[in-house]
Amino acid sequence: MDDRYRFAEIEEKWRQRWESGDPYSIPDFSDNPKFYCLEMFPYPSGKLHMGHVRNYAIGDVVARFKRMRGYDVLHPMGWDAFGLPAENAAIKHGIPPAKWTWDNISEMRRQLKQMAVSYDWQREIATCHPGYYRWTQWFFLEFYKRDLAYKKKAPVNWCPACATVLANEQVVHGRCERCGTDVERRELSQWFLKITDYAERLLRDLQKLQGWPDKVRIMQENWIGRSEGAEIAFDVVGFDEKITVFTTRPDTLFGVTYMVLAPEHPLVDKLTAPERRAEVEEFVRRARNLSELDRTSGEAEKQGIPIGASCVNPLTGEAVPIWTANYVLLEYGTGCVMGVPAHDQRDFEFARKYDLPIRVVIQPEGAAINVRDMTAAYDGNGVLVNSGPFNGLPNKQAIPEITRHLEKMGLGKRTINYRLRDWLISRQRYWGCPIPIVYCKGCGTVPVPEEQLPVILPSDVAFKPSGQSPLVDAEDFVNTSCPACGGPARRETDTMDTFIDSSWYYFRYVSPRDEERPFNIDAVGRWCPVDQYIGGVEHAILHLLYSRFFTKVLFDMNLVNFEEPFANLLTQGMVLKDGAKMSKSKGNVVSPEDIIAQYGADTVRLFILFAAPPERDLEWSDQGVEGCYRFLQRVWRLVNSLGDEIRTAPAQPAGYLVGVNRGLRRLTHYTIKKVTEDIDERFNFNTAISAIMEMVNGLYQYRDRVPAVDRDPAVLREAVEHLLLLLAPFAPFIVEELWERCGCQGSVHRQPWPQYDPEMLVEDSVTMVVQINGKVRDRVLVPADISLSELEALILSQPRIQALLEGKRILKIIPVPGKLINIVVK
RNA sequence: GCCGAAGUGGCGGAACUGGCAGACGCACCGGACUCAAAAUCCGGCGGGCCCUAAACCCGUGUGGGUUCGACUCCCACCUUCGGCACCA
Q1: Strand B: which nucleotides have any atom within 7 A of a protein Cβ?
Q2: What is the pTM assigned to this prediction?
Q3: What is the CA A68 to C1' B27 distance in angstroms?
């Protein structure tokens, strides 16, 4: 019989059988326990890359494992299908974005099926389909109704290469997250979602997310950036105006020696003295034109200029000069800062540069700070000085005291500020979800009525990157009638940030074809929240924060009864080659397609799960792939060679076993335990696979070294069948084929996950390690049930140990049952 | 600068609750099979000492500490990677 492992034939055979049966389609409701296993859906960029393969291989093991454990597993797949690459392809090659996108989807779907990822394909969705984006628009209108969507004119981040604005979250180190171009600032009227209203809840509920990596929680915490402090009002001299500052250090209020406004602050223009006007305007103009990169980089020099006005410290009554400076940001706090050079490093540098006074108001315990000798601000704790009635108070205590005092006088209040800014969602691009808003001369901004949704994205559009949405020129689209008065009106031509599309897709899977509402509430109640979410850590802030925000809004709308969408999160590491992330520009890309053609999908899956634990980065190794391929061949040969022997064997080993047969049963049950725990508790697929390899090695020994007369076919049968069951989630094709060849009934993927018998793990005797003063000196085989005193006597009677103890005094003997015994001597 | 993670053979990694460091795999070395090669099978594989072996010594980034016992816990430091970064 030809017994070569012909992976291509085997995989094609089972692919076809599975394709015809729709084996992973899951009913909406049943009495089984549920498990929602979700991997982050991909952008349909063309072909799967190794990062996708890793993501979906991990998810598939979890899904298959849970299914075998008796869960109804919801395991869906879809496409994050709106986005810039499609539009860029249209500009470059003249292919319509829709065609480009749908072609890519077909190709990537084919590849996922080739990999045998066990999705319920009935539930496939694509965010660019009107049946989907209609509900994205519906959500926008709901947000609008609740004042959570608003339009405002503001300085925004503009990427000149992508010719669109970007959300704050999409600007990385002052550069565009997508293309790396330096981001510019522009003053534009744009749509925002009020995520800041949810800042506190988004922060607070991070504590609930015990199933998330700490790293991601901390990143979100930093991004939200909560800080407690006070707002304090300073009267402007000679104007009926107040300047309100935000500070986390009201205890340093007596140390204020100047005031700074952000260059864009409206009061700058108002308060500037006539003789200073020309100079100040020039300064402001220059500051505004700085790119975000130059503006925010730490090395940028602090620059400022006095505007010729002053304001009064509410506690001292002293007047201090008002400046404007590039290091103060309009968007944070109140857009102005009180200058306390003695106790804030930035203020210190600024004061030194412009020769502003420095006044110490906090002295550290047991040391005296002297302004002349200061080389840096003192931002530690201490006792207040030069602070009138508050002198002598520890500064920690002074913070609430001074705040309370200001509140009483109506000059300030306790407040909290967040670094998080509202989410800018307008994009001046074509291939996205249209914003369902109409502008009417008479009625103003009018939301498109729900029954007119979806606002269909027109297909006859000329693509030219212009800085304006291409939709501006689509006359049939733009010109419409006002839903309120029926008069002529114009549609909003910007489209939505694609992160909105992906902020709710996981709910759509529960009822993907529902035409009445975004999702079936009962079905969401059954399946959500997602039990296990798996994806790259690059989404730690963007997608995961936005999705949490959306879920909280839906909770407030009574559409869901939970506040967090993803109960458990696994962030997988990157796939590297030669120590670097695979990328076309580095030329170190390994194509999944080529590897599958060469070794088969089972080998690729196995390697990518075996080479590293999922959270860590994975170094691609052609030789490692080769090793996994060899292992599958080894399994193939082993099972085929034993097929005849086990087909006729009894299903269950009977009676009490000894020697090699008991040993093999112990190996079988030990491996079940190990693999089960590695998958279920720790996602350590690499060690689970190691354990399976060890089991295969043990089976080879049994086959080749135990004489036929001593072998128990029932034990062998149990071992082989369990080997296949344990390997099934990792290498679904080869296992299904071998399962059939062994004469087993039904699909291996429909079998219950095996249980181990704790009885089988019990050993008659154990090897005890004998240490003297913590160093291993001997090993002794002892009966497992030996008593402590017997053990001690036995160990001390060992000739080797006796020799080593010669002339020494035993201080202590520390036994670790079943493992080790340590003799402490002097 | 702040926050976080990680440093273990030639390589990827294992050691789960403080108890035999290096499982499993790769690479490499030797042997069997073969006319030969590939494949496969068997054996070896941290370093030192040694003709060989036994024995012994060293060894988980560095230096200290706790403990009968430390890759694991504590303190200080070094390196690499990731996040945030003029956030008042």
Answers
A1: 3-5, 11-16, 19-21, 23-27, 39-42, 56-57, 68-70, 82-88
A2: 0.94
A3: 37
Please tell me the predicted confidence (pLDDT) of residue A1: 44
Q: What is the DSSP letter of A683?
A: -
Q: How far is CA A96 from CA A46, A100, A647, in A?
A: 15, 6, 58
Three-state DSSP at A575 gives strand
Read off the pLDDT of residues A493-535 as tens digits, 9 standing for 90 and up: 999 999 999 999 999 999 999 999 999 999 999 999 999 999 9
Residues 6+ apart with CB under 8 A from A190: A151, A152, A153, A154, A156, A165, A424, A425, A426, A494
Tokens 């085989």 -> residue:
A781
The rounded distance, in Å, linking the Cα atoms of A74 and A37 is: 6
Evaluate whether A244 touches A232 at the Cβ level (below 8 Å). yes
* Nearest Cα to Cα of residue A321 among A256, A401, A386, A370: A256
pLDDT digits (tens, 9 = 90+) for A357-380: 999 999 987 778 888 888 888 888
In angstroms, the CA of A38 and the C1' of B57 are apart by 54
What proportions of chain A, in percent to the nearest 5, are helix, strand and coil? 45, 20, 35
Helix, coil or strand: residue A180: coil
Residue A759, number of CB atoms within 10 A of its CB: 9
Looking across all nucleic acid strands, the nucleotide with the smallest C1' to CA distance from residue A339 is B88
Nucleotide nearest to A419 (CA to C1'): B87
What sign does the dihedral A681-A686-A692-A694 (CA atoms) show?
Answer: negative
Burial A414-427 (b: 16+ CB within 10 A, else e): ebebbbbbbbbbbb
CA-to-C1' span, A676 to B53 (A): 44
Q: Residue A32 CA to B72 C1' — how many Å?
A: 41
Residue A336: nearest nucleotide (C-alpha to C1'): B88
pLDDT, average across residues A430-451: 96
Task: Calculate mean pLDDT across residues A432-443.
Answer: 96
Which nucleotide has the least CA–C1' distance to A631? B25
Tell me the HSE value of A547 on the side-chain side, using a 13 A CA sphere: 21
